[in-house]
Amino acid sequence: MSQDRDGFDAGLDVVLAEVRASLDLGRLNEFIHTWWLIACDSVKDPQGRGDVYERGTRVQELADVGKPIPRGGKTWRELLAERGVER
Asked: How many domains does the chain fold into?
């Protein structure tokens, strides 16, 4: 998905700047691990991944105009577990 690619590229730029300043590769390792999970999710359920981006866009539009953001009844852990991601 183009959103994944754009997010990865932007995030990698930030992480590499942090690593250059700190010389700590742990942050890079964490970033790569997180994006590995995202890539696996995109391959496993591309439609679900697209739905995530659509919901995110709607939430951002509400936030931009000062409207309340709808809250779901599940925790992040529950949502991720439904998608087969254990953290």
From this structure: 1
